[in-house]
UniProtKB/TrEMBL annotation, chain A:
This is Translation initiation factor eIF2B subunit gamma. Its main location: cytoplasm. It comes from the Eukaryota. It is found in: Cytoplasm, Cytosol. Component of the translation initiation factor 2B (eIF2B) complex which is a heterodecamer of two sets of five different subunits: alpha, beta, gamma, delta and epsilon. Subunits alpha, beta and delta comprise a regulatory subcomplex and subunits epsilon and gamma comprise a catalytic subcomplex. Within the complex, the hexameric regulatory complex resides at the center, with the two heterodimeric catalytic subcomplexes bound on opposite sides. Residues 432-442 have a biased composition (Acidic residues). Keywords: Cytoplasm, Initiation factor, Protein biosynthesis, Transferase. Residues 407-442 are annotated as: Disordered. Pfam families: LbH_EIF2B, NTP_transferase. GO terms for cellular component: cytosol; eukaryotic translation initiation factor 2B complex.
Automatic annotation (TrEMBL), chain B:
Keywords: Cytoplasm, Initiation factor, Protein biosynthesis, Transferase. Gene3D superfamilies: 1.25.40.180, Hexapeptide repeat proteins (2.160.10.10), Spore Coat Polysaccharide Biosynthesis Protein SpsA, Chain A (3.90.550.10). Residues 581-760 form the W2 domain. One of its GO terms (cellular component) is eukaryotic translation initiation factor 2B complex. Residues 433-484, 752-774, 797-826 have a biased composition (Acidic residues). This is Translation initiation factor eIF2B subunit epsilon. Its main location: cytoplasm. It comes from Rhizopogon vinicolor AM-OR11-026. Residues 425-516, 536-576, 749-826 are annotated as: Disordered. Belongs to the eIF-2B gamma/epsilon subunits family. It is found in: Cytoplasm, Cytosol. Residues 536-545, 561-576 have a biased composition (Low complexity). Component of the translation initiation factor 2B (eIF2B) complex which is a heterodecamer of two sets of five different subunits: alpha, beta, gamma, delta and epsilon. Subunits alpha, beta and delta comprise a regulatory subcomplex and subunits epsilon and gamma comprise a catalytic subcomplex. Within the complex, the hexameric regulatory complex resides at the center, with the two heterodimeric catalytic subcomplexes bound on opposite sides. The keyword tRNA-binding does not apply.
Length: 442, 826
């Protein structure tokens, strides 16, 4: 089965290069906060005990693509470099050549996707696929589906981009507001008959007219049966012609691909002045993945992260309740339900864990209760502590008998500490930090 | 058991009579002056009054009781209903005319009137008096009632018909964007679209996405103006006294209201036909639709609402069956033509794509094209009538030319030797007491006697009404009569009794409804292609330089949308110059280079046309350029390869003929056939190269090889850009003009040729003419367009190219005959 897919593609090797963007993951804070001196790369956060990066990489590999340009912040380079050269990953991605490049930026002031792409334009020689490191595609959505759409369209009238949008029905179980809201769908207009993306709403338009969507009549004349929906999310996977980079070079003001560049590009499709100006006929293809075709999500916020962990083991092949990593010890009389536990964790006696994600090296002391939590690397939970719907930064320590609810537990941020810590406020900030980082080394 | 209960149910169902309300008044004046003495719903379309078509449509839909709401000329409508075949016992239809108050200026007022009359007892069908439809409305009513059971707020179902954006019966001037729920067809938003000034944005409220996350935005629906309404609809009109138009006010108001909480649904008819005659353009297109049988079973040879019987001949020609039509042996009847009984077509007359009423006469050698002649029209010999509507009893005397878009009211006489400017509107002078019209006038006066207290300031009112009352008509006529231009009147011929209605203009102070604005009305006018209006939905790939400037300006702001003069408002510049500009871009010039090489190879190595075509197709696929560019390259290749023979016209003609015979076929094998574009491009290349003198001959050669035909040359000729309008260097413009005149000459010859199959001689003659011009001055022969208006005395003043005519008059006489031309040849 697989061979049938792969072999014909191999004939035309180097047709595409995959460009994977790995960012800081600011919406996943505190999980992506620094662990002591060490940064926690978003790309290496595990989802069902596999680094997030594994998912797009294997997706790319399955479609027969050989070249990957992986772009990450320079501070993440050692960790990611170590990972892709380590035994565990190189075995699975032997056929892919990964070119790891870095860009300099700080976590606070991250560069827009456009400028990153402009910067690396000279490394991209041909058509390329741009994808984020956090896209978890459903098995029913192979990358080759997008590539084939791109190929057929370019035979007909040469699109320069094929995009992929997915429908996401979030679970009934709600995450607390404190975690940040799940990704909001963007209203888009597309033509069903030709599979063309026509309009992407963007914040600027929304600011201009918050009550109404303004659609050009030229659009509606050209595509008289357009559909408008607010159910779809952008996968941020774009199959692009090389020409996109030239356009990007011309439009130096654009910062974000999703919010600036593509909404603009949609307009080029039906606005003739722009067509003459940029001397291209543009068509933006769209592939739509419905929720009932399989679970697909971009893990770029906490609710999605929790959900992704839950869903990956819910696939029909693995009807298991939990996923527990290697070398993890669970003591007696503990109960673990619907949870993902990382490697090298220690879980004491009488512990109750329901619907949680525990990353590697967590220590849960006796009698602790965890419900709907995400614990960063090496989090320590004191005995009989009770956490409900909390997220912790790597290395965080929850004290004994502490009871927390709906919190983002952040080491550096004192204000986010629960009421209990109010008394500690008198103590110097330096003290608290050093305490926690010391303990987390265990 | 079950059968008896079924029967009971049937009986209860039957008790509910399906009611329909016809708004017989049009509430606008688009047909003026045809409608000064007659309501629009009594104008004949395909020789039956519109109202009868509407009755027929409703009868087909199973309606049993019809209320006809009439306002102006109410007595005429009443009489028409009384005489209609539907009023006879046994038709199963009950038709009740209801005369509303004079203050009824809008459909909304009429609805309020319906409410006060209290005639509506159940769900009813609301239509206008100008409907032609074969849609099964019964099915829509059933769905509507079904829906009412689950959704108490479902108040109305609008019937819309799926079509293309540019369908001929879809009015450009007055259309709409519907936002629908894909599953239930609930209408969530209604956006009226006015054609000119072009609407730029459709504004869709974001809040509808809250409840309906996925919606369809449809811009391809024809609004049939058939609404299934619930009883509460008239009362809603009563409550909201500011609702005027049913669509723009009522539907829009209900959908945007937070208080009413009522729902409106659409029924998208996939089959069937429905359209309303809401302007002269749709009058034209619906007539054509009827003639080409889209309205089956409502067609002239079957179910004709007027009760006439016609014989259907090949090519959709309909001739009255009673053997009373007299067709001369040499007359020519084109396709899509209907000829009423007792009509006569004289020798060598041509009637194409037209409808002739009863007792019409077309004189010898006259041409009637795309026109609608009501009963009793008499057209003298050697006249031309194009794209016009001619009222009943009109006499057009010999050698008169009626240009496209004219509306001539009942009883007018024009000619002889008259020339009507395009879009003239004529009506009869009142003082003119023609015997035969006297009685009719009396009738109307009687009819309208009751309707006397109409305000004079009606004009400025929103509900301007073409079906006005006699005194107002009088006052308006008086005004029109007072402002007659003697010079223009003089052109109407010596026997005329007509007055000319001024073209509609906008008074600055006056507030005119956007929809009824003259510029927008042009989109609804018969015969007006409005090519000089800038329409956003032209979707052309053209744009002016100033706009690319504004584009770059707004680029500074990153969002073009913020700039009001952004792209959609492309000027109607002709394509060639812009294409050249476009071609400057690297990708396209590279493509052109490749095409040139490919053609070079093909010519040098003598490839077959098919092989060359395949190569071109692949090239086009690879670089993704428009078909026009390919055609452009091919024509450039052919034209540039035609050698200019120094040694005389005959060898030149041979060279052209052999070149076209060998390679002409390639033009149509590149993946699409567009002969009009071919002529345009040929013109462009000839005008910008030293092969300008060859234009006529090449065109003739293309014509002979069937690459372009007569209609295409006409179509090209009719385009304003063909005359060089908008061509940038003015020197080129001159050349364009020359080509255009050459084409004009060719068309003239087509006109002269009639039905005889002498195309060969003709194109030969054409070529000869060109030879003559070439050998003489180096210019193609420049000749006046029409012989008739040359001979007519008053042709000189208004015609734009009159200067050219006079300057070349000498030319014409020297090259008048084929024989003399032959003499000129070396």
């Amino acid at each position: 089965m697989m061979n049938f897919d792969v072999i014909p593609v191999e004939v035309v090797t180097r047709e595409f290069v995959a460009v994977i963007l790995a960012g800081f993951g600011n919406d996943l804070l505190p999980l992506t906060g620094d662990h002591g001196e060490e940064p926690c790369a978003k790309a290496l956060l595990t989802i069902s005990n596999k680094p997030m990066l594994d998912y797009p990489l294997s997706w790319v590999e399955q479609s027969g693509i050989k070249d990957v340009l992986l772009i990450c912040p320079s501070s993440h380079r050692p960790a990611i470099s170590h990972y892709i050269h380590s035994q565990s990953s190189s075995a699975s991605f032997s056929s892919v050549h990964i070119d790891l490049q870095t860009f300099d930026e700080s976590q606070e002031l991250s560069a827009g996707t456009c400028s990153v792409l402009r910067h690396f334009a000279n490394r991209i020689k041909g058509d390329f696929i741009l994808l984020p490191c956090d896209f978890i595609p459903s098995p029913s959505l192979p990358l080759s589906k997008l590539l084939n759409k791109f190929r057929t369209d370019s035979m007909l009238d040469g699109p320069i981009v094929t995009t992929c949008w997915y429908e996401h029905k979030s679970d009934k179980q709600t995450t607390p507001d404190e975690w940040g809201s799940p990704a909001q769908p963007t209203p888009i207009v597309w033509d069903h008959l030709s599979g063309t993306l026509l309009y992407v709403d963007n914040p600027e338009e929304a600011d201009k007219n918050n009550d109404e969507l303004e659609l050009r009549m030229t659009l509606l004349s050209r595509y008289p049966q357009a559909k408008l929906t607010s159910r779809l999310l952008d996968s941020h996977v774009y199959v692009c012609k090389r020409g996109v980079l030239d356009l990007l070079a011309q439009k130096t003001r654009f910062d974000s691909l999703r919010e600036d560049f593509f909404p603009w590009l949609c307009k080029v499709q039906y606005q003739s002045t722009k067509q003459t100006k940029y001397a291209t006929s543009v068509r933006i293809g769209i592939v739509i993945h419905r929720a009932d075709e399989g679970f697909t999500v971009r893990v770029n916020n906490l609710p999605a992260y929790l959900e992704a962990n839950r869903h990956v083991y819910e696939t029909p092949q693995f009807v298991v309740d939990n996923s527990i990593g290697d070398f993890t010890r669970v003591e007696e009389k503990s109960m673990i339900k619907k949870s993902t536990i990382g490697k090298h964790c220690v879980i004491g006696k009488m512990v109750k864990i329901v619907g949680c994600v525990l990353l590697d090296h967590c220590v849960i002391s006796d009698g602790a209760k965890l419900d709907g939590c995400i614990l960063g690397n090496s989090t320590i939970v004191g005995s009989k502590a009770e956490l409900i719907r909390c997220v912790t930064q790597a290395g965080y320590e929850v004290k004994e008998n502490e009871s927390l609810r709906n919190e983002k537990l952040d080491i550096s941020d004192w204000a986010a500490q629960p009421e209990d810590s109010e008394g500690d406020m008198e103590g110097s900030t330096g003290e608290g930090e050093s305490d926690e980082s010391d303990e987390s080394d265990d | 058991m079950s059968s008896s209960t079924g029967k009971e149910k049937l009986i209860t169902d039957e008790e509910e009579v399906l009611q329909a309300v016809i708004l017989a008044d049009s509430f606008n004046k688009r047909f003026k002056p045809l409608t000064t003495h007659k309501p629009r719903c009594l104008l004949p379309i395909c020789n039956a009054p519109l109202l009868d078509w509407t009755f027929e449509s409703l009868a087909l839909a199973g309606v049993q009781e019809i209320f006809v709401i009439c306002r102006s000329h109410a007595e005429l409508v009443k009489a028409a209903i009384k005489n209609s075949k539907w009023s006879k016992p046994g038709t199963g239809l009950k038709i009740v005319p209801i005369v509303t108050a004079k203050e009824t200026f809008t459909p909304g007022d009429a609805m309020r009137d319906i409410y006060t009359h209290g005639i509506i007892t159940s769900d009813f069908v609301l239509v206008t008096g100008d409907l032609v439809s074969n849609i099964r409305i019964g099915e829509v009513v059933r769905q509507h009632k079904e829906r009412r059971k689950t959704d108490k707020d479902a108040m109305m179902t609008m019937v819309v018909k799926q079509s293309g954006v540019n369908h001929r019966t879809r009015s450009k001037g007055d259309s709409a964007v519907f936002v629908l729920d894909p599953e239930t067809s609930q209408c969530l938003h209604y956006e009226a679209v006015t054609g000119y000034p072009p609407k730029k944005y459709a504004r869709i409220p974001r809040e509808i996405l809250n409840e309906h996350p996925e919606v369809d935005i449809r811009n391809d629906l024809i609004d049939c103006s058939i609404d299934i309404c619930s009883v509460e609809v008239p009362s809603l009109f009563q409550d909201n006294f500011d609702y005027g138009d049913i669509r723009r006010d009522f539907v829009h108001g209900v959908l945007t209201s937070d208080l009413l909480m009522k729902n409106i649904y659409c029924y998208i008819a996939k089959e069937g036909y429905a359209a309303r005659v809401k302007d002269t353009r749709s009058f034209d297109s619906i007539s054509k639709d009827i003639l080409s049988r889209w309205t089956f079973p409502l067609v002239p040879d079957d179910n004709h609402p007027g009760g006439h019987s016609y014989e259907h001949l090949r090519g959709n020609k309909y001739i009255a069956k009673d053997n009373s039509v007299i067709l001369s042996r040499t007359c020519k009847i084109g396709n899509n033509t209907l000829i009423g009984s007792k009509s006569q077509i004289a020798d060598n007359a041509q009637v194409t794509a037209s409808v002739l009423g009863q007792r019409c006469t077309v004189g010898a050698g006259s041409i009637v094209r795309n026109s609608y002649l009501f009963d009793g029209v008499v057209i003298g010999p050697n006249c031309v009538v194009e794209h016009s509507i001619i009222g009943s009893g009109v006499q057009i005397k010999e050698r008169t030319r009626v240009e496209r878009g004219c509306l001539i009211a009942d009883g007018v006489v024009v000619g002889p030797h008259a020339r009507l400017a395009p879009f003239s509107r004529l009506s009869k002078r009142r003082s003119d007491g023609d015997e035969d019209d006297e009685d009719e006038d009396d009738d109307q006066e009687q009819a309208d006697e009751e309707d006397e207290e109409d305000e004079e300031d009606n004009e400025s009112d929103d509900g301007d009404d073409e079906d006005e009352d006699e005194d107002e008509v009088d006052s308006e006529l008086e005004e029109v009569e007072a402002n007659q231009d003697a010079e223009a009147l003089a052109k109407l011929g010596s026997d005329t009794n007509a007055i000319i209605w001024p073209p509609s203009t906008v008074n600055e102070d006056e507030e005119v409804d956007e929809l009824e604005h003259p510029d927008n009305q042009r989109l609804m006018r018969i015969g007006d292609n409005a090519s000089d209006l800038v329409l956003s939905d032209a979707g052309s790939v053209t744009s002016s330089e100033s706009e690319s400037e504004s584009d770059s300006d707004s680029d500074g702001e990153r969002f073009e949308g913020s700039n009001p003069s952004s792209s959609t408002t492309s000027l109607p510049l002709s394509t060639p110059s812009n294409l050249v500009a476009q071609a400057d871009s690297a990708a396209i010039s590279e493509f052109q280079q490749e095409v040139k090489q490919s053609l070079d190879r093909a010519f040098a190595e003598g490839h077959s046309v098919d092989n060359a075509a395949v190569e071109l197709k692949t090239l086009r696929m690879a670089s993704n350029v428009s078909l026009r560019l390919v055609r452009d390259a091919v024509i450039a290749g052919i034209v540039s390869r035609i050698k200019i023979m120094g040694d005389g016209a005959i060898s030149q003609r041979k060279e052209i003929a052999s070149m076209i015979a060998r390679w002409g076929g390639l033009i149509d094998k590149i993946g699409g056939v567009d002969p009009v574009e071919t002529v345009e491009l040929l013109q462009e290349h000839c005008a910008s190269s030293d092969r300008l003198p060859l234009f006529g001959q090449i065109l003739a050669a293309l014509y002979q090889d069937d690459i372009v035909d007569e209609d295409d040359i006409r179509a090209w000729h009719a385009k304003p850009e063909s005359q060089g309008e908008g061509v940038k260097p003015t020197s080129l413009q001159e050349n364009y003009k020359k080509c255009w005149v050459t084409g004009a000459h060719m068309i003239k010859q087509f006109d002269e040729q009639d039905s005889d199959e002498e195309s060969e001689e003709e194109s030969e003659a054409d070529a000869d003419d060109d030879d003559d011009g070439e050998s003489g001055t180096g210019n193609p022969a420049v000749k006046p367009l029409e012989r008739e208006h040359n001979s007519s005395k008053d042709a000189s003043s208004s015609e734009e190219d009159s200067s050219e005519e006079t300057s070349n008059e000498g030319d014409e006489y020297s090259t008048g005959e084929d024989g003399s031309e032959q003499d000129d040849l070396p």
